[in-house]
Design goal:
- By secondary structure, the chain is of the alpha/beta class.
- The protein is globular.
- The protein is built from 8 helices and 10 strands.
- It has helices spanning 17-26, 46-55, 71-81, 97-103, 119-127, 157-166, 182-189, 208-219; strands spanning 8-11, 30-34, 61-66, 85-88, 108-114, 133-137, 171-174, 193-196, 201-202, 205-206.
- The strands form 2 sheets. An 8-stranded parallel barrel has the order 1-2-3-4-5-6-7-8, surrounded by 7 helices. A two-stranded antiparallel ribbon has the order 9-10.
- A hairpin with a 2-residue loop joins strand 9 and strand 10.
- The chain has one domain: TIM Barrel (Alpha-Beta Barrel).
- 35% of the residues lie in helices and 19% in strands.
Amino acid sequence: MKKIINPRIKICCISSIEEAKTAIELGASALGLVSEMPSGPGVITMENIKHIAAYVPPPIATFLLTSKQDINEIIKQHRFCRTNTIQICDNLKIGTHNELKNALPGIAIVQVIHVTGRESIAKALAIQNDVDAILLDSGDQSKQIKELGGTGRTHNWEISCEIREKLDIPIFLAGGIKPDNITLAIEQVHPFGIDLCSGVRTDDKLDKIKLTELFYNVNKGI
């Protein structure tokens, strides 16, 4: 995948139409809407996800973040919420990515890979032909209570860069990114997109000052 100079910015953990509007006005090209998770911030009801997704205009991407591991449950979630993208935060156990895509034509499928070591490279290579994009995050599925994102921690960006170099599909980089390190993240990894949640929030609320600083730091390099 070629280097991206100015990546797309996805603001995750959107909780209301007001937050969606703020993120879009300041430059977000994608919004993350978090359904039930075993841990982490930003979870909202399915009804709220549906409400926000219906408000967001094209071409802004709306991501349904799901922890479901059965494609039938994911299909049911999506048919209620009606986002244009599904972000699978855990490993599928029942069904395949291709079966999911066939059931939901036109809906982009993004698989999260938690970068815990070099084994993450093989995981990314194994599924690259089955999904539309991969999101590299800092979770830990091996914990008793799974971490599927929203940790606020960075991971080894050298591994993320190697994954980006080896793959031919878009890569999103997540995990501990904020206004004061986003330029470094872009320079080191050159991802297609950057995904943020806690880095642009204060007391769990979207912070317009932090968001403005973030987009300034991204755009000054153009």
